[in-house]
Amino acid sequence: MTTNTDTTLTKGQTPAREFREANARARAGYWWEGWDGSPSEYVRRYYRVPAFRGDRVTVYGKPGRITAFRDAGIRVRFDEGPGWSVPCHPVDGVVYVDGDARLAGRKTRSAQ
């Protein structure tokens, strides 16, 4: 058994692994506590945006509608453009038209 001045490591543990585990314990209680695992909930909690499927958004001045959530991002079908959904970053140039009214009173990045 290897000893350290701060903690005693058990067999198979390294200082780096112990550090990661200690950080994981320290992070408990942040935005992901109670997260149900869905991509939409992840986007809403992590980026603090009022993003919901079917809501109207404006991305860099182009109006559209959120159709899906994929890979920590949103998919938007624009009113004028291709007939399919385009991947967009949840906060990069996005104004949530419907979502701001839904979450009135909560501080979001689009309202800052």
Explain what the structure shows:
- This protein is 24% helix and 22% strand.
- It has helices at residues 15-26, 39-47, 97-102; strands at 56-59, 62-70, 73-78, 86-88, 94-96.
- The chain has a 5-stranded antiparallel β-sheet.
- A hairpin with a 2-residue loop joins strand 1 (56-59) and strand 2.
- The protein starts with 14 loop residues before the first helix and ends in a 10-residue tail after the last helix.
Strand content of the residues, in percent? 15-25%
**Shape descriptor:** elongated
Distance between the termini: 52 Å
Total count of helical runs of at least 4 residues = 3
What is the H-and-E element order? Answer: HHEEEEEH
Radius of gyration: 20 Å
Assign a percent range to the helix content: 10-25%
Q: Identify the strand order in the major beta sheet.
A: 4-3-2-1-5
* Total number of strands: 5
Main sheet summary: 5 strands, antiparallel
Secondary-structure blueprint of this entry?
Elements: H1 15-26, H2 39-47, E1 56-59, E2 62-70, E3 73-78, E4 86-88, E5 94-96, H3 97-102
Antiparallel strand pairs: 1-2, 1-5, 2-3, 3-4
Task: Please provide a brief summary of the model.
The protein has 112 residues and is α+β, with helices and mostly antiparallel strands.
Structure keywords:
112 residues, alpha+beta, 3 helices, 5 strands, 22% strand, elongated
